[in-house]
Amino acid sequence: MKLIYMLAPMEGFSDNSFRTLCYKYGADVTFTEMARFESLARRNKSTLEKIKISYKTPTVIQLIGYKETFLKKFLDGFKPEEGFLGFNLNFGCPAPMFVNYGMGCAMIKRISKVKKLVDIVKEKNYQCSIKLRLGMNEFEKEKKVYLNLIKDADADFFVVHARHGKETYDDVADGSVFEECCRTGKKIIANGDIKTKGDVETLKGFGVSGVMIGREATKNPAIFNQLKGLETADISEIKKEYLKIAGKESDKYKKNVLKYLGSELEIRDSNY
Ligand SMILES: Cc1cc2nc3c(=O)[nH]c(=O)nc-3n(C[C@H](O)[C@H](O)[C@H](O)COP(=O)(O)O)c2cc1C
Fold this sequence. Notes:
This protein is α/β, with parallel strands linked by helices and about 270 residues long. It has helices at about 15-25, 35-40, 45-50, 70-75, 95-100, 110-125, 140, 145-150, 175-180, 195-205, 215-220, 225-230, 235-245, 250-260, and strands spanning about 5, 30, 35, 60-65, 85-90, 130, 160, 190, 210-215. An eight-stranded parallel β-barrel has the order 1-2-4-5-6-7-8-9. Strand 4, helix 4 (about 70-75) and strand 5 (about 85-90) form a beta-alpha-beta unit. The longest helix has 13 residues, at about 110-125. The two termini are about 30 Å apart. The protein binds flavin mononucleotide.
């Protein structure tokens, strides 16, 4: 089976230009940064901007939120643009501004709530995937709450970020969990610290359907083609291309992307 390469959702980076650049260099599927469906339901302009698809780039829209009524209201008014593949529900974000209100990775053990949200998306005939961490903390990870969610929720695929909610990017992602995740028979996408062809081969051996890459792509958007063993361009060429695509886009994203593109800088923000 052919492995799917995905660009991770990254707030402040994953706008149309960056997604399109990574698609050009081998990402089969890209994700928008998270967008709150409460704000989308209220037609908040800057949140709606986050889910726009401008270049027909294959895109999954990532949603974060809590109340079913808002998800329904947003979906009732949603019109897919070309490139739209489906929705992803964020049950991985460990930031207190979400977790303290029961969102993000606080949702991992709330399976009946998760099921309701998945059903709402699927009732509209949209693909619905889930991105999760391994639990809120070490205790939940040990209880394997992530496996319960994967077994019980009827999502099309599960992106598993192999850290729990108290871990930062200084803690190494725990690749040992993928094998048991795959044994559930569900479609699993591995995420966390994937950098080399060797990493990909190991994950393939566990039976994952795809790999998702975040921070490595901010340094080198051609990482996808590189891992696929395909030809890539020089980083200066990639930078030029990015500037061409990003010409008219927001400076906020451009500033972030240009800071890391071609550098060896590691993003360490533990809010994600
Ligand atoms: C700057 C930044 C922003 C992020 N924003 C999101 C987000 O909006 N939604 C989400 O699910 N994960 C978000 N993440 C987490 C990534 O999607 C990914 O799970 C994490 O970076 C681990 O993958 P990596 O080791 O390949 O970077 C973010 C990560 C970073 C570094």
